[in-house]
Amino acid sequence: MLKRICHALGTALCLALLCGNVSAKDEKPVLRIGCEGAFAPFTFIDDKGEITGFDIDLIRELGEGLGYEVKITVYPFDGLIPALMADNIDAIISGFTISPERAKKVDFSEPYFLCGLNFLIRGEDEPKFRDLDSLKGQKICLQIGTTGSLFAQKQLTGSELKQFNSPPETYLELLNRGCSAVINDSSVNDFFLARHKGEKVVAVPIDKDIDKEYYGIAVNKNHPEMLDTINRGLKQVRANGVFKRISEQWFGHDISSTLEE
Ligand code: ARG
Q1: Do 202 and 126 share a structural domain?
Q2: Domain of 124?
Q3: 50 and 84, same domain (yes or no)
Q4: 30-82: per-residue pLDDT in tens?
Q5: Cα of 188 to ligand 1 centre, how many Å?
Q6: How far is the CA of 5 from the centre of ligand 1 (A)?
Q7: What is the atom index within ligand 1 of the atom nearest the CA of 96?
Q8: Most exposed residue of 14, 55, 119, 179, measured as fewest CB within 10 angstroms of its CB?
Q9: Looking at the domain assignment, is residue 168 inside a domain?
């Protein structure tokens, strides 16, 4: 009987029925998404207190395009993988870099964003800190659990690494002279810079091969069907122009071509 109903309803709804993610028969299945909430322009809280950003629009469009109701829960960044592994969420979207270390614990979708790392310093320090080597021995602000933090742990031994929960805290610390530089994703550092022109902060690129990362949507390794669903949704939003529209909205241009390199 359930099999016949499933056949009629389609895979997404059926899986949700089996997993108990849908209560009444007319309701849509729920796609439970986890993100961290202070990573503008990807995932952040707007003036009305609502979660917004490129990643949020992307996952909403992707999920709704597949017939889901998308429910978003905000976690601390280092709580995302544990939440996914505990099956409290179906997927993570949070400017989350596809990395070999993480791929041991979670599965990643196809990439949807190309990024890299850079660092921010106070404008007056521009002559002093022109490259990574000049940061050795300095105090560096980082976001806990990020690829930027890992990068600094490997490349800047001997520096004092100050770890914070979110990028805004690291920027504040930089402005308050609590550190010499903030290392994080260039897309996020540049967004901060663009929004705080009066703060006299500058961005310095990191000239390393390592300076190339792709964001992916992470799913639980035990749910390969969810990985297929997410990849199908990504393909759909790329094909129907939705991805282009959202990227133009957030970045002023279509970022699709960066993914085809
Ligand atoms: N891309 C980096 C990483 O995956 C930073 C991500 C931080 N994301 C966030 N929502 N705070 O480690």
Answers
A1: yes
A2: 117-211
A3: yes
A4: 999 999 999 999 999 999 999 999 999 999 999 999 999 999 999 999 999 99
A5: 9
A6: 40
A7: 4
A8: 14
A9: yes
Q: Ligand 1 site: residues with CB under 6 angstroms?
A: 36, 39, 43, 77, 94-97, 143, 146-147, 185
Same domain, 218 and 109: yes
Q: How far does residue 149's CA lie from ligand 1's centre (Å)?
A: 10
Place of tokens 């939705």: 242
Q: What is the 3-state secondary structure (H, E, C) of 148-197?
A: HHHHHHHHCCCCEEEEECCHHHHHHHHHCCCCCEEEEEHHHHHHHHHHCH
Please provide the average confidence, as pLDDT, over all residues in the chain: 90
Quote the ligand 1 centre to 133 CA distance (angstroms): 23
Q: For residue 35, what are the β-bridge partners?
A: 74
CATH number of the domain within which 194 lies: 3.40.190.10
pLDDT digits (tens, 9 = 90+) for 107-130: 999 999 999 999 999 999 999 999
- Whether the per-residue pLDDT at 2 is higher than 50: the answer is no
Pocket test for ligand 1, best of 43, 58, 97, 213 (most atoms within 8 A of CB): 97
